[in-house]
Amino acid sequence: MGKKVLVVDDSAAIRQSVSYILSQADYEVVEAEDGKIGERRLDDGPFDLVLTDVNMPNMDGIELVRRVRAHSAHRFTPIVVLTTESQDSKMAEGKEAGATGWIVKPFDADKLLGVVRKLVD
Amino acid sequence: MSASDPPATFREEAGELLDRLEAVLIRLEATPDAPELIDEAFRSLHTIKGSGSMLGFDELASFTHIVEAAFALVRDGHAKISGSLIELGLQARDHIAAIMASPELDDQTRGDGERILEQLRAAYPALASESRPQASSVSATAGPASVAIGSADAVGSDVATTGASGGETTFRIQFAPKAQLFRIGANPILLLKELRELGETVIIGFTDRLPALDELDPEACYLRWDILLTTEAEENAVRDVFIFVEDGAEIRIDEIDGGNLEDSDIDYKRIGEILVSRGLVTPEEIQLAVNEKRYLGDVLVEKGLLTSDQVNAALQEQQYVRGRRETRQRAAAESQQSIKVDTRKLDSLVNLVGEFVAEHATLAQIAAESGDGKLTSVSERLESLIREVRDVAMDLHMVPVEMLFSTFRRLVRDLSRELGKEVRLQLEGTDTELDKNVIERLRDPMLHIIRNSLDHGLEPPDERVRAGKPREGTLRVAASYSGAHVLIRVSDDGGGINRDAVWRKAVERGLLTGDEEMEPQEIYDLICAPGFSTTDTATNVSGRGVGMDVVRSNIEGLGGSIHIDSEEGHGTIINIRIPLTLAIVEGLLVRVSDQYYLVNLANVLECIDFSTVNRHSSDRQLVEYRGSLVPFFDLDSYFSADDGSDGSAVDKQLIVVSSDGRTVGLLVDEVYDTFQSVIKSLGKMYENVPGVSGAVILGDRRLALMLDVDRLTRNGVRH
Q1: Dist. CA B397–CA B435, nearest whole Å
Q2: Cβ distance of A108 and B247 shorter than 8 Å
Q3: Which helix (H) or strand (E) holds B564?
Q4: Could you give phi then psi for residue B224, rounded to 5 degrees?
Q5: Distance separating alpha carbons of residues B21 and B37, to the nearest angstrom
Q6: B436-452 and B402-419 are packed helices; what angle lies between their axes, rounded to 10 degrees?
Q7: Nearest CB neighbour to A11, from listed B47, B184, B219
């Protein structure tokens, strides 16, 4: 089986698109609707990569990054933040929190896979 | 998870978000100071924008972007909430719903949207800087397979290919991660792997930062690397590899060797220069070390300025770049070893060599007649030189059959469309070489054969399916060497040839009496017989035969032969055998009566004194040859159209020749030596004389006729 990716986004449409692209490329995908659920799903891991949106109800992506980095078992897991062009400050915040990389929305399959392959062996 | 249809999911999801937005805005009217409500409004808009842009709802995304920005100003404390923002928010909500309902906006709806944005900008001047990111050229129909949206990206994926016109560049990359690199989940090994995918690499690892074991933090990164990368990618693409670790590492990229020939001085920098360009030492330090007149690296290490690893890395760089430059120079030198030559010059060279060969024959004869040993030995030496020159000249004149075959692709494509057939063309042995003139003259006959195969051989797709064949027919054209010949085989898996129909047609045309006993192969060969076919009869015999006699005479004109084989229902094979070159042949000179003939040496098996030959006891026209019976005939009677009396045959010589697997004996009066010569055409008047295919001029200026062995063997077998 392929590598395992956790996709955290409150938009079902985005989760579906991302899952579709990744599963076509042979990645195993676990989805979560917000940061809080994402944090819980970590126990379904270990994950080779976490992809997370920034703006989400309950727990946002930045906080999720902080929590993953503080988690004894998962703190070295690469995390990619999905951000929008209007959110330079969020990107800095994400880096500060320990995000490994970022993808600016909108993105296409090539760009997503390009970044994922950079971080997952 | 529901069935994956992201655009449909988006519509559903956006509908819910709009409902929530509406509820939030109405609550905001009552409690304008509730930050969590502002935040929720912002988030709803943000999600609609983000997902919409991902899924190709560009108009929707660009409109929502500005509305979202207005709520962001309020959320971040840059502006105050007002009744008009709530009112405009509600109008915007309705407008977004309208955009989703009809992807093609009418002018009225579009105008509504512009009016809302104008009023927002009027209320919040800070929005003026927010333009509608007029999104990419993607349609709103994006499904799961093409979630493709978005403009050019800065990251990752399009790193690898740039194919820069300048060719390959070598970069030196000094990559020194900070200790905390692992703590952001980065993996330097993957970056090295990514660099390897860009081109040829030399990776040098440094362990000099590793502390003693008891001081080692297992979660820190102590390693660093130098990478020499030779790639077609540009520097930006190389830099992009490190995009996520720019803050987490020191990265220095220098171009150290370009693809341009100008800088391909083999001698790359000296070690000192490399070390300075790496920023490891200053020029002054180098100068001081050089003054010690010892090996530079040793001095620098002793002085504690560098580690030996660093010196070794510089040495490796020197060696690597030098190697690259040497390879490049060699390649450049090799490419300069071939030049383009006008084919007319080549033609004239080949002709001159031919004349040379013929002229030498005269010399050889004079030498032989003079009995002068010195003259004879010069003549012999000259002969071997001429042979070498001939081979070189011939070789220059050879071109791959690809030149001819590649033109079939278009023909097959166009013709199969025109005929409503599905045909796969398979070309094989395209690197087989043939004399350029032969190739030129093969073009028409080959086109004819291929056209026939498509027109009449290969069936329409439906008919093929009914016959249990794949819809797509296969036409295969293959070339291969066979001694001094090239074999070209054109085969198809079409309907084949109806042998009975060919037989009946041949009888009808008076080519056969109807009493003959013939091998299947001979029946197929009738298709190429003169007078067998005309266009109107073609389809009656499964289509073969349209002007095939013309094809045959063209190919025989090249000294070649053509044979047809077929299996009804399964396809047809046409074998063409062509001599490698036209210009010069090596032949056996013989005399028949008072006329000289040349027999292509490639066809001659043996010369035997006829008096020693055993003739078959009952059939006097057969001789025993190597355990089998071979037909023979007297060339004298063949050419003089005698009735074939062989009364005086005792003194004659039997030349056993074979062509295409058929063996016959030819009776001649005398056999001389082998003889190289240029074959001259007999001209229009005589080109159809059976049994001869050309003429050569002998050393004593007399004429010899070139025997058409292929025709003679066919005749002989039928005799």
Answers
A1: 6
A2: no
A3: strand B561-567
A4: -145, 165
A5: 9
A6: 20
A7: B47
Sign of CA dihedral B532, B537, B539, B541: negative
Q: Which of B43, B156, B185 sits opposite A114 (nearest CB)?
A: B156
Per CATH, domain B584-716 is 2.30.30.40: yes
Class for the domain spanning B399-579: alpha beta
B550 beta partners: none
Say if the Cβ atoms of A17 and B13 lie within 8 Å. Answer: no
Give pLDDT tens digits for B332-363: 776 666 677 777 887 788 788 878 887 888 88
Residue B456 has what DSSP assignment?
Answer: I
Q: In chain B, what residues touch A17 (CB-CB under 8 Å)?
A: 6, 54-55, 144, 147
Instruction: Find chain B residues with C-beta within 8 A of A100's C-beta.
Output: 184-186, 244
Token pair of B171 as six digits: 């970069």
Out of 2.60.420.10, 3.50.50.60, 1.10.10.10, 1.20.120.160, which CATH number does the structure's domain B1-132 have?
1.20.120.160
| CB-closest option in A19, A85, A99 to B133 | A85
Identity of the residue in A13, A114, A118 whose CB atom sits nearest the CB atom of B9: A13
Distances (CA, A) of B158 to A1, A109, B155: 27, 12, 7
HSE-up (13 A, CA, CB side) for residue A20: 22
Contacts of B154 in chain A (CB under 8 A): 104
Per-residue pLDDT, A86: 61
The list of chain A residues with pLDDT below 70 reads: 1, 85-87
Question: Do residues B163 and B202 touch, judged by C-beta distance below 8 A?
Answer: no
Which candidate in B40, B147, B245 is best for mutational testing of the A interface (most A CBs within 10 A)?
A: B147
Residue B296 CB neighbour total at 10 angstroms: 18
pLDDT, averaged across chain A: 87
Residue B43 is nearest to which of A55, A102, A120, comparing CB atoms? A55
How far is residue B214 from each of residues B183, B217, B222, B266, measured CA to CA in Å? 21, 8, 14, 47
Domains of chain A: 4-120 (3.40.50.2300)
Q: Which of residues 68-97 of A touch B (CB under 8 A)?
A: 69, 75-79, 84-86, 95
Minimal CA separation from A108 to chain B, in Å:
4
- What ipTM goes with this model? 0.87
According to DSSP, the β-strands at B249-257 and B169-177 are antiparallel
A37: left (phi over 0), alpha (psi -120 to 50) or beta: alpha
B560 phi and psi, to 5 degrees? -105, -175
Residue B474: closest CA among B571, B564, B565? B571
B610 touches chain A (CB under 8 A): no
pTM (global) more than 0.90: no
**pLDDT for B565-574, tens place per residue?**
888 889 999 9
For chain A, give the secondary structure using H, E and C.
Answer: CCCEEEEECCCHHHHHHHHHHHHHCCCEEEEECCHHHHHHHHHHCCCCEEEEECCCCCCCHHHHHHHHHHCCCCCCCCEEEEEECCCHHHHHHHHHHCCCEEEEECCCHHHHHHHHHHHCC
**Category of B477 on φ-ψ map: left (φ > 0), alpha (ψ -120 to 50) or beta:** beta
Tokens representing residue B715 in the block = 């005749």
